Amino acid sequence: MTQITHHGVDASSIQPHRAPTTSYRIGAQFTRFPGTETTPLRQGIATALEQGYTSITLNNFALESRDTDVVELRGAARDIASSGSELLLGLGSAGPVQEARTARAELAATLAAGLDLGCTEYFLHTRTERTTVRHGERTLDHPAQLSQILHTLGSLHPVAAAAGARLNLKTHEDLSSAEVKQVIDRLDPEVFGIGLDVANLVVRGEDPVKVTRALAPQVRSTHLEDLVLFPIDTGYRRRLCPIGQGVLPWDEILGSLWAQGVRTFTIEQHRGRFDTPVHNRAWFENEPHLHPDDLGQLARMARATTALVEGGQIPELERWNDDPSATERAEQFAASAAYLRRALQNLSSTTVDDSTQSGR
Prior knowledge:
Layout: E1 25-30, H1 41-50, E2 55-58, H2 61-67, H3 70-82, E3 86-93, H4 100-116, E4 121-125, E5 133-135, E6 138-140, H5 142-163, E7 166-170, H6 177-184, E8 192-197, H7 208-215, E9 219-223, E10 226-232, E11 235-241, H8 250-259, E12 264-267, E13 274-276, H9 292-310, H10 326-350
Helix pairs in contact: 1-3, 4-5, 7-8
């Protein structure tokens, strides 16, 4: 094994953003910002900046670097920097989705393109299977898939370290938080961190509050959405919704992140439809990280979801299969941002900000 060296926005009178005036940033993560799906990337970024977002995360920079003119990309990066905002790029999958050497070369090329724009913050996701999979002539069980991810990330270390860049492994729906931490703990903490996607944790049967508290010291990027958890015959079905409109306890989640110096809170919005089949005995064979209290919290969220349906606050499960319109997506982003702003203003006013930890 290769040795890795350790070393929302409110609808009321939004003013164009010029420079951060708070101790935190509210970010937007997108491929195209809602309402600008048919316009050039730079126009969508301009719209997000005008609406007050102070951090911009592009979902798929590999795609952008192939399909968007480099002049436009550089112009977009300048727009973000000149506004006082920050740029974070999605590098793509750390594996194992294809032959490892090819994946590493593609990630290295994408990282080089991002560094050319002056970006130093990145996140990566994963595409593992809980069971053994075949890649070409090789078969990989889940530990072998994790090992391949570790080596892929490690291959990016020299360039990232030399550039002062940080690479964050996202808590994707295919990995438990323990597995993400297992990988990151074997890498250089000056370069590698964790990208916390809170809503993904329930897919692996985990308690978002407990996991956030455990991972917060290593969290360097956030990908935030709320969720509802519907009881179904096989267990639970997750659906995503604006922050503050679901069943996640945001006071505890945001409080844990804030206490560890996280100051950038980024809204992600996608469909992401997954089940957590806790009624299937065989499912537990590939989930050794689970604890009874995790399952208890899933049950609590499912009960809370049922109460929201019965109270007429959210529609029944069948209605969640409809895709939101562009207008609805924009409204959902605005609702999340408005909720975050209120919550973070409250945190900011009741705690002493440690400036040495800010910016995460």
